[in-house]
Design a protein that fits this description.
Elements lengths: L10 H4 L3 H11 L2 H23 L2 H22 L6 H19 L12 H10 L8 H7 L3 H9 L3 H12 L4 H8 L3 H28 L2
Amino acid sequence: MKLTTSDSIPASYEQMQDKELVRLFRKKDDQLAFRELMNRHQSKIYSYIFSMIQNREVANDIFQETFTKVITKMDDTYNEQGKWIAWVMRIAHNATIDHIRKQKRFVDVSSSYDKESKTDFYDRLPDEDSPSQQEKLELDESTSSLLKHISNLPEEQRTVVMLRHYYEMPFKEIAEMTGVSINTALGRMRYALINLRKMFDEEREKESSNV
């Protein structure tokens, strides 16, 4: 990832909210404001892209493409009523999915859903804006193993896990960002947790057999 430097950025910029920095960049072409936005969020954005691609060179290219689009589209398409980082993440997500589709690695997991169990699951789901106990249980594993297993999930499931667990994005925003219904986003999270649990169980069984 090509990082920007943080030198020469006044401390006052670091105290500003994203919306204030965005306003400075849009109205005054304040490059320091934009550099502060990048310094603040680039690690999160790059990590998401890399988690989906698993290739540093390609992830770097998509990261640069994302911020090129951010700069060129901010005046035309960004609505200041929304969160800037959510808007940028949507651009990064779309660029990532475009690459995956071009590589013919796009997988539609919706056909693997258990249609009969969907309604029952949604009825039992707790408040969608706070991680459920099941999510915390399934994802409370060592970071290295977790990231390894997440990378092996189907693309749609990997997306929702990263957005939900690492960026604490509500399901409503995940659904809007990925262009699906909330129920579909919830279903993808459910099957991601099921698949992750299977992967951890298989990992433990393998470790036990080697003892």
